[in-house]
Design a protein that fits this description.
24 helices; 2 domains; 73% helix; mainly alpha
Length: 539
């Protein structure tokens, strides 16, 4: 392992000082709840796109994607570059609906479209998943990486330390501090990962043919057979798009910076810009993990049987002294960008969806106080839960399996709900309740983990379905539940339907008077072409 030089440590210290300084500087201008939760609704497309990228590319993504690529190949990258599809859907359909309704949280949209029950249910699910899955997953992955550089660190102490740093500047600076630091972190992250990729590529003589030839057969293929354990083609086409739609369109953690956009055109530009940025991880995060299978074979590195150890091993074994600090700063950037975004979104949900409705006369000063207290409390909960993720089988698998239970009914009430005008509050609420319960039940009968815990190792799952296939099945079933219950109960309010469902004139909203090359629809076509080329090349 290469030692951490004084230069490396200096880079890391400078980074911490920078993000903390930004947080405290912005906090001086954070005077209202709109400032704290939506950055004063002032974000331009560049900040939105970079922040979406940084918030999504967390330390969990870095560690999880590299490990998954090492174990199963580049197929796991579909979660990254295929993000362009749900980002396009969000830009086309949901951005005008969200911004015109002036919501602060995504569950508020459900209240306006359906009723308070759906808002509360969805908000509770989002807060829980944000803290126990996304935030805790980011802290766990970050702690694992730091332990590779500083072996004496204790997992829970590392998680708590990272949470405290991110929590302080998020609590005081709000979303604007999060977005500004995210933009900086995006640049650091891309630079660090690009350097690492180039060094690994050099170890294979800068030859792509050497990269492909030295890896197991099919390692660089994205279309896998139905019995593939990592990503069958059925899951690729049925599950991944639904998971992506939920993440990029209905997830408060992501969409909050879009709600803070200056106007509709900047929101749309920012989302398409993020779609282009999401192509980058395939080349600087996934492919390095896939290359590592030949550079760091498991016979010589038995610790890589735990896929979460792959990225830290690559960094410590491949980088020269002096470069480690840049990459580690990028890793810390990833940790901070995921944790700060999740903290801000979760505290927003708590205050706006629960505290304010029960205390309608709260002043902006009171809301700021509640928001900051909530941020600190949620930060501590995530920090103390994070070490428990070590008991699950692989970080990436943990994240995706948890989401596969929660996502289908949520995706249905949003995507079907904005087009199916007969959809009502009863249909929405019971789709969330029944769909989540059935999703959990399907997960239990198609995953080995719960049966091994009950009956011992070697126990087979009851039904041989990949969790991404489960997503497709549950989405279809949730759609039936939503339509049937809506038809059996009274129709929704006409005003709700008129304002909160999609209309063709919204397609050009915000684009009036702009030249063709500034129209988001032109950018959208370019993004689709790029994704198609990637799919064909890695078929």
């Amino acid at each position: 392992m290469n030692p951490i030089s004084n230069i490396d440590i200096g880079i890391i210290i400078a980074y911490f000082a920078l993000v903390m300084g930004i947080g405290f500087y912005v906090s001086r201008k954070t005077k209202t709840s709109d400032d704290l939760f939506l950055g004063g609704r002032s974000f331009t497309y560049g900040l939105i796109g970079l922040s979406l990228f940084a918030s999504n590319i967390s330390s969990a993504t870095l560690v999880g994607l590299s490990g998954a690529a090492y174990s199963t190949g580049v197929v796991q990258s579909v979660y990254e570059w295929l993000s362009g599809i749900p980002l396009i859907i969000a830009a086309v359909i949901f951005v005008p609906l969200y911004l015109r309704s002036k919501i602060t949280t995504i569950p508020e949209f459900l209240e306006k479209r359906f009723d308070r029950r759906s808002q509360v249910f969805f908000s509770i699910v989002t807060i829980s998943s944000s803290v126990l899955i996304e935030m805790a997953g980011g802290l766990y992955a970050g702690s694992i990486v730091l332990q590779a550089f500083f072996p004496g660190l204790v997992l829970w102490q590392s998680a708590l330390g990272l949470a405290i740093v991110a929590g302080i500047y998020t609590a005081f600076g709000g979303l604007k501090a999060v977005v500004i630091t995210d933009a900086i972190q995006s640049v650091i992250l891309i630079i660090g990962c690009t350097v690492l990729t180039w060094i690994l590529f050099g170890k294979l003589d800068y030859s792509w043919s050497n990269v492909v030839a030295s890896a197991p057969e099919g390692h660089f293929s994205m279309i896998r057979p139905l019995d593939d354990e990592s990503m069958p083609w059925s899951g690729l086409f049925l599950g991944v798009p639904i998971l992506g739609f939920w993440y990029w369109t209905t997830n408060q953690y992501i969409v909050q910076r879009v709600l803070g956009a200056k106007d509709i055109k900047h929101a749309r530009w920012g989302m398409i810009f993020a779609g282009f940025l999401k192509v980058i991880p395939l080349f600087v995060m996934v492919i390095p993990g896939a290359m590592a299978i030949s550079l760091f074979p498991i016979e010589q590195y038995p610790e890589l049987a735990n896929s979460d150890k792959v990225f830290p091993t690559i960094v410590t074994q491949a980088l020269p002294v002096g470069m480690v600090g840049i990459v580690l700063a990028g890793l810390i950037s990833a940790i901070m960008s995921s944790v700060d975004s999740t903290l801000n979104s979760a505290s927003t949900l708590v205050v706006v969806d629960f505290v304010k409705p029960n205390n309608p006369n709260l002043s902006d000063r009171d809301i700021l106080k509640y928001g900051r207290i909530t941020t600190i409390v949620l930060m501590l909960v995530a920090a103390f839960w994070a070490p428990n993720i070590a008991h699950f089988e692989g970080l990436w698998s943990y994240l995706q399996k948890m989401f596969s239970i929660l996502v289908p009914p949520i995706a249905v009430i949003f995507l079907v709900g904005v087009f199916y005008k007969r959809g009502n509050g009863d249909g929405s609420f019971w789709t969330l309740v029944i769909g989540t319960f059935l999703g959990l039940l399907l997960f239990l009968v198609t995953d080995t983990a719960p049966w091994e815990a009950i009956m011992g190792e070697g126990t087979e799952k009851l039904l041989n379905l990949h969790y991404t296939t489960n997503v497709g099945i549950m989405t279809a079933l949730s759609t039936v539940i939503f339509v049937v219950i809506s038809k059996m109960t009274p129709p929704p309010n006409a005003e709700q339907v008129a304002l909160m469902t999609f209309r063709r004139e919204l397609l050009s909203d915000g684009m009036e008077g702009l030249p063709w090359y500034k129209d988001y629809r032109f950018h959208m076509v370019l993004l689709v072409i790029l994704m198609t080329v990637i799919m064909i090349y890695f078929w």
